[in-house]
Amino acid sequence: MSYVDGFIVPVPHDSKEQYRAMAQKMAGKLQDLGATQVLEGWGDDLSRGKVTDFYMAVKAEDGENVVFSYIVWPDKQTRDKGWEKLMADPEMQPGQDMPFDGKRMFWGGFQPIVEERATADA
């Protein structure tokens, strides 16, 4: 069964394109390391809650949106080896020009308990 990494990150609206370009570059590297799917979703239909919501979870500030991301790996072993190599890549080290506040980002690894995929009709 697959293994999934999930991320939630606040991104300023005016940094959307810079974030997209960074995410596109990272997606290619992740796929080179074995990821089977990478998705970065720009918040489009996010409700404001009274107790919690995506904005509150990342302490989004005025002018920021929320990005929801996930990476699908064939298994946890591939994921662990992939992240180890990615974290050692000098090109992937955090820099001053990050298009988001990494202190308010959160992430984790997940073992699927349901995994269904649609198949194309023949």
Protein described:
The chain is α+β, with helices and mostly antiparallel strands and 122 residues long. It has one domain (3-94, 103-110): Alpha-Beta Plaits (2-Layer Sandwich), CATH 3.30.70.100. The protein has helices at residues 16-32, 54-57, 76-88; strands spanning 3-12, 37-42, 64-73, 106-110. It has a four-stranded antiparallel beta sheet. The longest helix has 17 residues, at 16-32. The model has no long low-confidence stretch (mean pLDDT 93).
Task: Please outline the helices and strands.
Elements: E1 3-12, H1 16-32, E2 37-42, H2 54-57, E3 64-73, H3 76-88, E4 106-110
Antiparallel strand pairs: 1-3, 1-4, 2-3
Instruction: Give the helix level as a range of percent.
Output: 25-40%
What is the CATH C-level name?
Answer: Alpha Beta
Strand order, largest beta sheet: 2-3-1-4
Span of the ends, CA to CA: 25 Å
Number of helices: 3
Using only C-alpha atoms, the radius of gyration works out to: 16 Å
- Assess the beta-strand content as a share of residues: 25-35%
